[in-house]
Amino acid sequence: MVAKQKTLFEAFSQRARCAKQGNVVMIVVDGGGATVVYTDEFLGAQKWANSKLSSGNVVTDRGRFLEQFQVMVARPGSFCSTKGNDRQLFKMAKAMRAAGHDLGEWALPPELKVNKLVDPDDIQAKPKAAPAEPAPADAEGQEQKE
Q1: How much is the pTM?
Q2: Residues 26-56: pLDDT tens digits?
Q3: pLDDT tens across 106-140, in order?
Q4: Which domain holds residue 100?
Q5: SS3 of 86, please?
Q6: Regarding beta strands 16-21 and 33-38, do their DSSP bridges make them parallel or antiparallel, or are they unpaired?
Q7: How many independent structural domains does the chain possess?
Q8: E strand intervals along 2-130
Q9: 53: three-class secondary structure by DSSP
Q10: Cα radius of gyration rounded to whole Å, the chain
Q11: Is residue 85 part of a domain?
């Protein structure tokens, strides 16, 4: 009898638990920490991984699956790190908060860990426009109106 070779996703999910929480999925890897990704991105990566065969190496398979994500928030000390630009991480932090996650437990930029999420566009130094000076009163113009 020939043993059926596992798909990449089957090999990955043997040592990982995936929990959908609203618009995000939390992936907890045994001995590898935890990450949060968008549900849509997870489903795409899952479909991709189900079409690939496992290499037989747990660490390689885990890495191949996790590298499919463009935006990912990890817990400190996890197998992989947080990735995405400030705007993407801001949106992910909002989705995580909506799903009930405590943002202080995750490897996020400091401005996203505070109680009130700060939009990255507001953080960047924006030059303030000088207040417009009122136009000088035109004495002749006022007489013409009367």
Answers
A1: 0.73
A2: 999 988 899 999 999 999 999 999 999 999 8
A3: 999 887 766 556 565 555 544 444 455 555 555 55
A4: 8-126
A5: helix
A6: unpaired
A7: 1
A8: 16-21, 24-29, 33-38, 73-74
A9: strand
A10: 25
A11: yes
